[in-house]
Amino acid sequence: MKVSSWGRLSQDKHHVISLSDRHQAAGQIQQSNPGICFGNGRSYGDVCLNPNGTLWQTSSLNRFIHFDEQTGRLRCEAGVLLRDIQRTLVPRGWMLPVTPGTQLITIGGAIANDVHGKNHHVLGSFGDHVHAFRLLKTDGTLLDCLPHTDLFKATIGGMGLTGIILDAELQLRAIKSPWLTTDTIPYHSLDEFFELADASEQAWEHTVSWIDCLSGSQARGIFLRANHADAAPAGKKAPSAKQLNMPLTPPLSLVNGLSLRPFNELYYRLQARKAGAGVAHYEPFSYPLDALQHWNRMYGPRGFYQYQCVVPRTNARDAIAALLDSIRHAGAGSFLAVLKTFGERPGPGLLSFPMPGATLALDFPNKGSKTLQLFSVLDNIVREAGGRLYAAKDARMPADMFAAGYPNVPEFLTHRDPGISSAMSRRLFGS
Amino acid sequence: MATASNTPQRIVIIGATSGIAEHCARLWAQQGASHLVLVARNQEKLALIEQDLQVRNPALHIRCQTGNFTDPASIQQLVDSIANEACPDIVLIAHGTLPDQSQCQQDLAVNAEALVINGLSPVWFAEAFVTRMVAAGRGTVAVIGSVAGDRGRKSNYVYGAAKGLVTRYVQGLQHRLAGSPVKVVLVKPGPTDTAMTAHLKHQGAKLASVEEVANSIVQGIGKGKPTVYAPAKWELIMMIIRHLPRFVFNRMNI
Question: Is the ipTM, as predicted for this complex, more than 0.95?
Fold first, then answer.
């Protein structure tokens, strides 16, 4: 069947095998090699694709196994969605410590991409909260992996290339309420952004900012910071679980040269009016786009790229300014643009994306070679600054760019499972 | 966990390892059911489901049971043993297989097996539970039929005939129980994305998500609707298909 990832850049035929339960998976993968795991398809690029090859779909591996209400340790299968965990356990006072901007991803995907969230400076990335997982190798062996072992570190952020994660044990964090106290601050320069980010690190758990991608190095944006609230605010109701839907793909990208500037203007003004303290439920605060099903369709039939890089702290200000100037010059990008800082902590995986510094993430409607040319300009800036790109978002980076950004690649490659291959692994590692 | 006073307390699921049944069980567990009896053929898979539901609702009492699904005497015994403990509030009869049509045409043994497991077995369970519910003066039996039972089609009329039998049988039960507190609900799912339909997906069929279908079913049962199409759009689609004149229908490759 034809399968796309979230960026909708390709629609290639795949042989899809749905893994039905964790006891039968070993038998199911023996019939076909090589393949790659496909969870909920929220990776933007080709990390989860294997055109004309096999995909092991993990979405039916969605059972909980055990939860300890005293310690907050949860064991569950790899296809469980973060949303399923949160909706089940938030009412009982437990939450995932680290989640990305969507909770519609699987546990296996969260581990394989070592996803991060708005609280990286406090709690690190997803892999920091994994106590154990079971890894099925394509030769049929089943391994229990524990932190600080080589295979564990290779699998955290390992793009699914070391084996098939069947289930995992996660540490949840206790919460007193599902609410957050928030603070919204408009900023008018990159210096101001970095000052805000530094000043917020101590007292605020979540920090993130929206940035107007057309504002160039004279950046303007909205800085958001939040902490978990002790109790539900009076008179506030939890949002309804209803989702809006983007029912069809428009013939052209709705994000284009005509719409982008006025939209950014409008968005900035609306958000700036909310400046100051507020209260928000964790779902709309952390996962605003989850409320609109199939939002990726708005970029039209050709799909879109997301470009997410991180640059080290020392060069961050200049590198981000140079990136924003190039993007403004090209008149490209989208209103979905995020700038945030990462904390000073080493990543738990050999190929973990976060590093101490600043990360910029932007969507770009696919305009073919024009878009790709802009990316090579951006690549050069990132490389020169000593930064790297995020594999979970990537569909095009050259192999040498990846090797330059991730010094642990040679060690990682010794842990690959020879029966696993993806479009991304062939692009970055040649097999 | 909040337990509304009108929440069904005791629920029995026959064919509990089916994808649709498992997701219905999750919803009931979330809604605060107190007792769940899960009946299926595969004990190992039942154990996985039991663990999962226990995490979703730690207070839920879950009992798993295996049984013979094709022998009327065993079915009677199974139903009696469950109902003797306490008469259930809801019974969901969800087991079935999707047989290969051409194999059913060539091999009458396969054909017979398909008709028994998809047609006779569910109505035997329904009859036995209804008897106990009538005696108790309350309860709802929901049987999973299929849109395939609405009109015979060349691509799957053996399965369709079995589900058609279920449709008529439930109609009869509903007629018999009209005005009584005991309800019988016929559920007709459209093609749903479960293990049973994995091969259809490869052929490019558009399948409803199992969560969506389970949601329609649990809501429909809650309201005691006589017929629940899941998702609801299949009611309209099947009304059209049922009424297509033969000269049009016979040209369709469905």
Answer: no
